[in-house]
From TrEMBL:
Belongs to the membrane fusion protein (MFP) (TC 8.A.1) family. Keywords: Coiled coil, Signal. It comes from Rhizobium pisi. Residues 1-25 form the signal peptide. The keyword tRNA processing does not apply. One of its GO terms (cellular component) is efflux pump complex. One of its GO terms (molecular function) is efflux transmembrane transporter activity. It holds the Pfam family YknX_C. This is RND family efflux transporter MFP subunit.
Length: 357
């Protein structure tokens, strides 16, 4: 009879020892996994945007070349990086031979004037004697022809003088517009020929963004739309659509949109940048970017229930702006979303909500 009593006593002691352990385990299971802050999705009006990328290029590039031939460069006034004004001297060419030809042409005009004066005097005398018959008709015609020839010769020599003056002016090469010199081919002492490129310049220092966009957006892009560009120095640049390219690349199915930048902004050309073109404003349901949990290529948020347990919800995201992201599907505006720390949570975790007892 004593043996069963001993077994019963042992069972009672074991139960007493196990009860605290089970209570501790239950308390631990019920402890919150994390203290979190909650937010409800915000309704905002955001512009619909088109992603784009492309090169910063000159709005218009001007080529400055020699207009005369066979002259030597005697002075170079501008260089790469020079900001110049329209009409400013860039290069000077040798003038010695041009000035000599100019003096020679001036002498030719003096000779032509003398020839004309003699021919005119003979013609005037022929006109006076013509009624008297003192001169033959043949001689009179000859004097009149000499006068016309001398007049034409003087006109020709004056035109040649004007040509020499133009050639003298062309020995000074000037800027065709305000702008920035981007390349220089002129070398001191080089003999140039007509059409020899000496400089290239960005007209008016204006730079534009030649942005490539998918062809499916072209019907919705028009002149004047606002453009937000990620500048090369880390700051954002606001531009406007100047022109939509008329053709689509058959290999990439992309078209070029020409974006004008503010005239007081002069980024370096040749840089590749990205940005967005704003189409129209539409409603957006947004949450903080910190609320998004990215796992296995899928976006999730954690939403809290009334019992302070969280559930993982798959969402589709859209536009992003100022630290917020658009939720296209997955939750509605009544959801209570964990703002941060979702990476440390699991589905059905109990959480403590900041600000609540």
């Amino acid at each position: 009879m004593r043996k069963p009593s001993g077994i019963f006593a042992t069972a009672v002691v074991a139960a007493a020892l196990l009860f605290p352990l089970r209570s501790a385990a239950a308390d631990q299971a019920a402890a919150p996994a994390l203290t979190v802050s909650l937010v409800t999705p915000a309704e905002r009006d955001w512009p619909e945007t088109v992603p784009a990328s492309g090169w910063l290029k000159p709005w218009q590039e001007a080529i400055i070349a020699s207009e005369t031939s066979g002259l030597r460069i005697t002075e170079i006034v501008a260089d790469v990086g020079s900001v110049v004004k329209k009409g400013q001297t860039l290069v000077r060419l040798s003038q010695d031979s041009v000035r000599a030809d100019l003096r020679k042409q001036e002498a030719a005009i003096a000779t032509a004037n003398a020839t004309l004066a003699k021919a005119k005097a003979n013609a005037d005398r022929a006109r006076q004697l013509q009624p008297s018959g003192a001169l033959s008709d043949e001689k009179i015609v000859e004097y009149f022809a000499d006068e016309q020839t001398a007049t034409a010769s003087l006109t020709s020599e004056k035109a040649a003088l004007d040509s020499q003056k133009i050639k003298l002016d062309q020995t000074t090469v000037t800027a065709v517009d305000d702008g920035l010199i981007t390349s220089r081919s002129a070398e001191l002492g080089a003999v140039v020929s007509s059409g020899t490129e000496l400089f290239r310049m960005v007209r008016q220092q204006r730079v534009e963004w030649q942005a490539e966009v998918s062809a499916r957006y072209l019907s919705r892009i028009s002149e004047g739309l606002s453009v937000d560009i990620d500048g090369p120095d880390g700051r954002r640049i606001q531009g406007k659509v100047r022109l939509v390219g008329p053709s689509v690349d058959t290999n990439t199915s992309r078209a070029i949109v020409y974006v004008a930048l503010p005239q007081d902004v002069h980024p370096r050309t040749g840089l590749y940048v990205t940005g967005t073109i704003e189409l129209r404003t539409t409603p957006a349901l947004t949450v903080p970017e910190t609320a998004i949990v990215f796992r296995d290529g899928i976006n999730y948020v954690f939403a809290a229930d009334e019992d302070k347990r969280v559930r993982r919800v798959r969402v589709e995201t859209g536009r992003r702006n100022d630290g917020e992201v658009e939720i296209v599907s997955g939750i509605d505006k009544s959801a209570r979303v964990v703002t941060s720390g979702g990476a440390f949570l699991s589905d059905n975790d109990l959480v403590k909500i900041a600000g609540e007892g």
